[in-house]
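Q&A log
Question type: sequence-to-structure
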Amino acid sequence: MLTEDPSGPPEPRPTFAGESTGAIGVIVEHDVMSPAYRRGDRLLLLPYKPAVPGDDVVLFSGKPGESRKVRAVVRQLVQRTETHWLCAQHNPAKREKFAISDFPLCYRIESVRRR
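Response status: OK
Response body:
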């Protein structure tokens, strides 16, 4: 995940974020979604744009303000049920189910900047 180092100057706004406000940047750490996204790619998420089945998304564990370590997972949203996100990954191809109680935040990937 992209973060600011509070001990140093803030990083300049990434150009691929455009004029978006409230955007979240994430750096991909694994190749499970290649060839769509590869290790080192930077993803732009716009939390106010809802994800729908077929969208590539980032699921976040935990809730804002929680002190535990947050985990982020990049997948393609297949379906949402009352209790789970049903998702697909590309490499290796498989379907997965994530409990909404464990991953309450699901943000659509708006754009990617290749490494």
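Response note: The chain is about 0% helix and 40% strand.
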